[in-house]
Amino acid sequence: MDIHALKIFSHLAESLHFGRTSRACHLTPSALTRTIQRIEEQVGTPLFRRDNRTVALTQAGTVFRQYAEEAVERWQALQRELAGNEIQGGEISLFCSVTAAMSILPPILKSFRRMHPGVQIKLQTGDAAEALDRLNNRQAEVTIAALPERMPAAVVFVELARTPLVFIAPADGAEFLTPGDDQIDWAHIPVILAERGLSRERIDRWFRTNSIRPNIYAEVAGNEALLAMVSLGCGVGVVPELVLEKSLLRDQVRLVEIESKLAPFIIGACTLKKHLLNPVIQAFWTAITPVGRPKRRQ
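Request: output the structure for the sequence above.
Response:
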């Protein structure tokens, strides 16, 4: 049983989702299934209970998970000891939104690649609302995203930027605004909201605080989808200003000034505390610090 197989098992034990693990580990579903079956044959007992809907660890799987994680950690510790402080290779998996990949990540990667050209960088982009899930499910070792008000105890982060949350309307959407004072007519306006994530939490709280019952027209995944819906004249919405600045649709929407502001986003790089034992992650953290704020909160 090799270390690579143990890593695959550990990822599946965390995600409990064959599709996510196959994508994260760059395996076909059939290859992932064969890997797990080989491990179960070697152990001599089923490690997962699975049906058409769910995947769960068996009692033996829970015991084996601890063994697998300890074995991987000991192997990585041995590699660090043998390599000393030199980082000649290795890899790091990153996850962030497209906006962060264009605006925040470039100076960090430039610095990191200059110091450690032998490290392979695996970059995934997607909805920022998935960032902490990706971290917890071991689909990424470092994520860049808006930070929740309460960070999980197992996560450390470095603040990289702040951006306001802004209200937007279609560029030609005068019918959504109250004549004379350029304010949103909340009694009649359709609203486009994010399905989930920090921006949804902030706008829901803002509606409650201001005693507004929104007329929700659509719920979408991702800021670009929200921008597209607003630009088409479907309603108004809320996006981070940084996303708006980098969007190809920025000229097709307009900012709407609201007296009661939303709390801004704090954007940070996140990783699990235990990942900082990995010299590659430590080196990446060193590259982050000059870009972000020196103070690290946890």
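The first helix runs from residue 3 to 15.
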